[in-house]
Amino acid sequence: MTQLWRYTNPVEITFGIGAIGELKQKIAGRNYCIVTYGDNPSFVDLARKIEHDAGPALVTIRDVEPNPSFIGLRVACASLSASPKEPEVIVALGGGSVIDTVKVLAATGSDFSRVQAYLEGRAGPETLSSTPIIAVPTTSGTGSEVTCWATVWDTEAKKKYSLARPNLYPECAILDPALTVGVPKSLTLSTGLDALSHALESIWNVNANPVSANHAVFAASEVLEVLPSLLDNLDDVEKRSRIARASMSAGLAFSNTKTALAHSLSYYLTLHHGTVHGIACSFSLPAVMRSVIGRDANCDAVLKRIFGTDLNRGADNLEAFITGLGVSTKATDYGVAQKDWVDAIEDALVGERGRNFIGTREAVLAAAA
Ligand code: NAD
Fold first, then answer.
1. Structural contact between residues 101 and 207, judged by C-beta atoms closer than 8 angstroms
2. Could you give phi then psi for residue 204, rounded to 5 degrees?
3. Which of 53, 98, 166, 177 has the smallest number of Cβ neighbours within 10 A?
4. Range of the domain at 263
5. CATH of the domain at 160
6. What residues are in contact with ligand 1 under a 6 Å CB criterion?
């Protein structure tokens, strides 16, 4: 690539088994809150252990729901008002839903209306805060620990928003693959495919650059190599570590490019058919890849580093990989009528993420036929 490009990611990363032991040092005596799930006792224990090591938290918020929505975020923000003081740092202990919830709390404190006004009408950006975040991911897929945006759903209005602010990058990310060992099989599958989708979507992207490409090639190659055997050996810490590193690398790739068409398509499926994020954003990858082959020499060259020189065969292999994991690559299998799917593609192409895609409408519609 000879044109001008730049790459930035300010998140300090600590990675490895036992990395959670660094948390006390990262909190560094500041007043802190913990945000985690309420639906799993192991997170209650882990939060207690953190308080034992780092001193009592101002408050521990356990109201996080999967796919944070306006309704759930209002509750989480109200829970923050139980804190006797403004936190100086917020610890996100969980997967993408927890980390994204923390980004909203960091931006709006206990008053959700400020973020809501900003998301709905770009109102009052100067009212948004940026409390420092320490992200401790417990899933391997979203990469949210190294991105500066949060996905927020208005389930009542069937809308998806992205809260994207440069000051919402976590101050640091502590990735301890041991925390992911208890992730059940279906979530290991969907989050692994989420990471694959981030990697590939950063490649067929108008914002791609050589650094994002290197992260993406590593991430996609690792997911393709490791995910099937991890699904047969969920307790394998070495494989968990490789997938955690792949997910983080995919995050580093798309932190600079954002996602593209497969993600734009996913929002329709998640909002209208309740499809889990990682499946919704990955089932269309083979069709999206087929539509982009031959469109751009740089993109082809990067894809060849993952799939070999015959990219059409590579797309077939990608399809076999996804279906081999028990995930259908047909929209109709998720309850979508073919006609509605064509309309969804048209909408996705003009959506914010769809406009990052380097392919053409005609090729996408042909690949989806
Ligand atoms: P999640 O955070 O929604 O969690 C799903 C379930 O997994 C929860 O019930 C939780 O209790 C359970 N869980 C989490 N960690 C576990 C563990 N170690 N052991 C056992 N159970 C565990 O899942 P996710 O896939 O990490 O996050 C999805 C969310 O992330 C979506 O809302 C999506 O929109 C968002 N996302 C954000 C970004 C970003 O850059 N901000 C990128 C991709 C996805």
1. no
2. -90, 60
3. 166
4. 184-368
5. 3.40.50.1970
6. 37, 39-40, 66-67, 94-98, 100, 138-139, 141-144, 147, 149-151, 179-180, 182-183, 187, 191, 194, 277-278
Q: Are residues 188 and 172 in the same domain?
A: no
- For 16, the token pair is 């490895």
Residue reference for tokens 């509605």: 340
339 is a domain residue: yes
From 178, 194, 225, give the residue that closes a domain: 178
Of 144, 178, 212, the one marking the end of a domain is 178
Give dist(CA 344, CA 83) in Å, integer: 43
Same-domain status, 83 and 156:
yes
Residues 37 and 102 in one domain: yes
Q: Which of 105, 136, 144, 248 to mutate to test the pocket of ligand 1 (most atoms within 8 A of CB)?
A: 144
List the chain pLDDT tens, one digit each, 369 residues: 578 999 999 999 999 999 999 999 999 999 999 999 987 889 999 999 999 999 999 999 998 988 999 999 999 999 999 899 999 999 999 999 999 999 999 999 999 999 999 999 988 889 899 999 999 999 999 999 999 999 999 988 989 899 999 999 999 999 999 999 999 999 999 999 999 999 999 999 999 999 999 999 999 999 999 999 999 999 999 999 999 999 999 999 999 999 999 999 999 999 899 999 999 999 999 999 999 999 999 999 999 999 999 999 999 999 999 999 999 999 999 999 989 999 999 999 998 899 999 999 999 999 888
Ligand 1 atom closest to the CA of 194, numbered from 1:
43
Residue from 11, 20, 40, 140 to probe ligand 1 pocket by mutation (most atoms less than 8 Å from CB): 40
CA–CA gap between residue 307 and residue 301 (Å, rounded): 10
